[in-house]
């Protein structure tokens, strides 16, 4: 039986309902060499972010995927604290972001060392948190992968092949996604265990479809950040193109930012539930399809 690996342990599909596949609880977009990087008082984060979790619990959301990875302030201990305070499972990644958000130790590590690090977090625990990483989050340059980003991807593919974990990548260009899939397959892993994050940023819709037809997940994660008509039209276009079985929807919102006073002002994770889903239904998308997009697909993408 497949499960999500979460802050609250293994969760089966029967224990879950709606899942948000791309959100952030805590992010630091300063580079890791900056003073104060990823530093925050845990109680302050809980105070700011727990109410945002409580809002979506009332809407029937049962889990979310934390997309803050190495290099952009991943704090698995803080994710755990928020999770425990709200009794809400969060899926936390291993992996690392793109240049220049790459710590010196990752820059100098061998592929084998990076593979071993990710494998340990996927199968044992992240640090001393007591819970396993649920997936691997990476990124690539907007126009191409650098040699360092490619090294990280190869290590990730090897760790994923041993665990069944999904690899997700912040990648803007569809052709770069295709290059990433080539690397993953060359390492013996599968295109269907890859998530093309921010697929909407590739404006050539044919490339959205090509990525999905290759087997990868495509993710439209600008709900509430772009115009509702624009997002609804894109989702319906993807459904009409036969991509419904490979489509994920989310906000890419939140979050506590330690670079801002008191963490800044979070943007709610509610727009998908309160605005977009009713709009899609109004436009004729049936309940079964909406259930697949918000319940089935996120579980299938991240479970192993």
UniProtKB/TrEMBL annotation:
Pfam families registered for this protein in UniProt: PTE
Single GO term (MF): hydrolase activity
Claim: Metal-binding is one of the keywords in the record: yes
Residues that bind Zn(2+) 1: 22, 24, 137, 252
Entry-annotated residues carrying N6-carboxylysine: 137
Binding site for Zn(2+) 2: 137, 170, 198
Needed co-factor(s): a divalent metal cation
Entry's family note: Belongs to the metallo-dependent hydrolases superfamily. Phosphotriesterase family.
Protein name: Esterase
Organism expressing this protein natively: Rhizobium vallis
């Amino acid at each position: 039986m497949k499960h999500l690996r979460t802050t609250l342990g293994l969760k089966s599909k029967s224990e879950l309902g709606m899942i948000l596949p791309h959100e952030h609880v805590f992010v630091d977009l300063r580079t890791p060499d900056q003073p104060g990087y990823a530093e925050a008082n845990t109680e302050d984060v809980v105070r700011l972010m727990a109410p945002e979790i409580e809002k979506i619990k009332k809407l029937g959301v049962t889990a979310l995927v934390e997309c803050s990875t190495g290099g952009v302030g991943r704090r698995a201990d803080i994710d755990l604290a928020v999770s425990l305070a709200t009794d809400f499972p969060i899926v936390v990644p291993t992996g690392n972001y793109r240049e220049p958000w790459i710590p010196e130790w990752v820059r100098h590590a061998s592929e084998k060392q990076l593979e071993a690090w990710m494998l340990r977090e996927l199968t044992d625990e992240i640090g001393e948190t007591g819970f396993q990483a649920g997936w691997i989050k990476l990124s690539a340059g907007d126009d191409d992968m650098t040699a360092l980003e490619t090294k990280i991807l190869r290590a990730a593919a090897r760790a994923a092949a041993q665990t069944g974990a999904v690899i997700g990548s912040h990648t803007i260009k569809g052709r770069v996604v295709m290059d990433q899939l080539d690397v993953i397959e060359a390492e013996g892993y599968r295109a269907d265990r890859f998530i093309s994050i921010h697929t909407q940023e590739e404006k050539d819709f044919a490339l959205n479809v090509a990525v999905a037809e290759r087997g990868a997940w495509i993710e439209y994660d600008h709900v509430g950040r772009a115009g509702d008509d624009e997002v609804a039209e894109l989702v319906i276009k993807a459904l009409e193109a036969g991509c419904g079985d490979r489509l994920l929807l989310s906000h890419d919102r939140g979050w506590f930012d330690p670079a801002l006073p008191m963490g800044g002002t979070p943007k709610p994770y509610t727009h998908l539930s309160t605005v977009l889903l009713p709009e899609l239904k109004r436009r004729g998308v049936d309940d079964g399809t909406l259930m697949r997009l918000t319940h089935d697909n996120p579980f299938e993408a991240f479970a192993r």
